[in-house]
Amino acid sequence: MSEHGIEVTVNGHRHAARVEARTSLGEFLREGLGYTGTHLGCEHGVCGACTVMVDGAAVRSCLMLAVQVDGAQITTIEGLAEADGTLHPVQQALRDNFGLQCGFCTPGIAISLACVMQEEAGAGEGARENALVRAMSGHICRCTGYQGIRRAIRQLSGHQPAADEAEAVA
Amino acid sequence: MKPAPFDYVRPASVAEACRILAEAGGGATVIAGGQTLVPLLNLRMSQPFVVVDINGIDGLRGISRVEGGTRIGAGTRQADALADDTLARHLPVVVAALGHVGHYQTRTRGTVGGSIALGEPAAEMPAAAVALGALIEIASVRGTRQVPAREFYVGPYMTVLEPDELVTGILYPDWPEGHFMLFREVARRPGDFALVGLVGALAVERGAVSRAGIAWFGMGPTPIAANQAEDALVGTALAGIDVERVARLAVADAAPFDDHHASAEYRRTVGLRIFARTLRETLDIRSAA
Ligand code: FES
Ligand code: FES
């Protein structure tokens, strides 16, 4: 059973640590560094709750070993908002549209959607909306019925909510 | 902490990786993207002594044009392959298939070689390799070898790969400019493994099929080449293709089974439909009926 020294940057902060080879990235973030905003659900890659950004890409933190992120830049849900507390557009959209209830799935969803927003920054409305919707196939939410999340995606894609939708939200 | 304890090594070259695999005598497991291996580790269904991380081997990544074809390095991320221009130009059907592999969040880590080496019978990449006539490039301390994808898969998750061997790349032969691609998958949700799927390519010359490569996934213990359908198509004029008959021949080569996702009968019925529809749409042949 090997142990390894690693150095990672999480939400702009550098951390050096020793990890057992079998420690997952998700467990390391939560137990080792105290970033408990990353939620571990299934721990076998199905639910998406554990999704974090590693070097700009959305990955399942339950399916990466901590030792594999040596030298990487990681963003967790704690690092998505700005320093002054201004929410990331994805967080704001989820909030505006009742896109979360218990919030267990939300950190992973917010990270995935934020990654897509970054990648599709130059894309047209329709393409961005498609990409956002497609990324949702990698997440399970047991509370919202997805409607609020779908509305948040519409907002992120630049749609004005239709009158009946605005009413439904209110 | 879920997995059983193991040692972790990160070789910097294929030679070093092969040496470690050889020394481990079957007790080592290769981690590429980890999108299948880590769930198995977490469930303790896999308990290797050594996990060999090949992500530090730069030479394993990348897509290149080679004599007569296109090579995908085994360590190429599925997301990178999906966005690759060379692949889109020369192997559009592989790109179409890649869009169905896992999810956005797993393609960022998952590799093409990992999917090929795993041999999940309902997965897209192995079937695409079988359909297109790809060669699997393999290395070990004993040297290198190339195995046709059609001989690589022997059962569910079983391949001819020896415990000390590493898949280093996949070589796809060129298909003529303007060839048709065939792809259709039926799954419960996007990103799920297919209940039934088919993938392939057809080349047409002077109004007749000149070359056909078609394979099923989710239709048996391995990806399955639709040999009889391929034979029936090659040499036939487009106008003379009996779509329903070819579809029946294709299903005759499949060996679907019952599981908790679907019955064998369901798979055969759906297979018949999607084969006929895909072929008809692709060739724009009007149904005789
Ligand atoms: S905890 Fe990682 S996908 Fe469920
Ligand atoms: S808000 Fe509870 S699981 Fe999604």
From TrEMBL, chain A:
<dbReference type="InterPro" id="IPR012675">
    <property type="entry name" value="Beta-grasp_dom_sf"/>
</dbReference>
<keyword id="KW-0001">2Fe-2S</keyword>
<keyword id="KW-0408">Iron</keyword>
<dbReference type="Pfam" id="PF01799">
    <property type="entry name" value="Fer2_2"/>
</dbReference>
<dbReference type="InterPro" id="IPR036010">
    <property type="entry name" value="2Fe-2S_ferredoxin-like_sf"/>
</dbReference>
<keyword id="KW-0411">Iron-sulfur</keyword>
<keyword id="KW-0560">Oxidoreductase</keyword>
<protein>
    <submittedName>
        <fullName>2Fe-2S iron-sulfur cluster binding domain-containing protein</fullName>
    </submittedName>
</protein>
<dbReference type="InterPro" id="IPR006058">
    <property type="entry name" value="2Fe2S_fd_BS"/>
</dbReference>
<dbReference type="GO" id="GO:0016491">
    <property type="term" value="F:oxidoreductase activity"/>
</dbReference>
<dbReference type="GO" id="GO:0051537">
    <property type="term" value="F:2 iron, 2 sulfur cluster binding"/>
</dbReference>
<dbReference type="InterPro" id="IPR051452">
    <property type="entry name" value="Diverse_Oxidoreductases"/>
</dbReference>
<dbReference type="GO" id="GO:0046872">
    <property type="term" value="F:metal ion binding"/>
</dbReference>
<keyword id="KW-0479">Metal-binding</keyword>
<dbReference type="InterPro" id="IPR002888">
    <property type="entry name" value="2Fe-2S-bd"/>
</dbReference>
<dbReference type="InterPro" id="IPR001041">
    <property type="entry name" value="2Fe-2S_ferredoxin-type"/>
</dbReference>
<feature type="domain" description="2Fe-2S ferredoxin-type">
    <location>
        <begin position="4"/>
        <end position="80"/>
    </location>
</feature>
<dbReference type="Pfam" id="PF00111">
    <property type="entry name" value="Fer2"/>
</dbReference>
<dbReference type="InterPro" id="IPR036884">
    <property type="entry name" value="2Fe-2S-bd_dom_sf"/>
</dbReference>
TrEMBL record, chain B:
<dbReference type="InterPro" id="IPR016167">
    <property type="entry name" value="FAD-bd_PCMH_sub1"/>
</dbReference>
<dbReference type="InterPro" id="IPR036683">
    <property type="entry name" value="CO_DH_flav_C_dom_sf"/>
</dbReference>
<dbReference type="Pfam" id="PF00941">
    <property type="entry name" value="FAD_binding_5"/>
</dbReference>
<dbReference type="InterPro" id="IPR016169">
    <property type="entry name" value="FAD-bd_PCMH_sub2"/>
</dbReference>
<dbReference type="InterPro" id="IPR002346">
    <property type="entry name" value="Mopterin_DH_FAD-bd"/>
</dbReference>
<keyword id="KW-0560">Oxidoreductase</keyword>
<keyword id="KW-0285">Flavoprotein</keyword>
<dbReference type="InterPro" id="IPR036318">
    <property type="entry name" value="FAD-bd_PCMH-like_sf"/>
</dbReference>
<dbReference type="GO" id="GO:0016491">
    <property type="term" value="F:oxidoreductase activity"/>
</dbReference>
<dbReference type="Pfam" id="PF03450">
    <property type="entry name" value="CO_deh_flav_C"/>
</dbReference>
<dbReference type="InterPro" id="IPR016166">
    <property type="entry name" value="FAD-bd_PCMH"/>
</dbReference>
<feature type="domain" description="FAD-binding PCMH-type">
    <location>
        <begin position="1"/>
        <end position="177"/>
    </location>
</feature>
<dbReference type="InterPro" id="IPR005107">
    <property type="entry name" value="CO_DH_flav_C"/>
</dbReference>
<dbReference type="InterPro" id="IPR051312">
    <property type="entry name" value="Diverse_Substr_Oxidored"/>
</dbReference>
<protein>
    <submittedName>
        <fullName>Xanthine dehydrogenase family protein subunit M</fullName>
    </submittedName>
</protein>
<keyword id="KW-0274">FAD</keyword>
<dbReference type="GO" id="GO:0071949">
    <property type="term" value="F:FAD binding"/>
</dbReference>
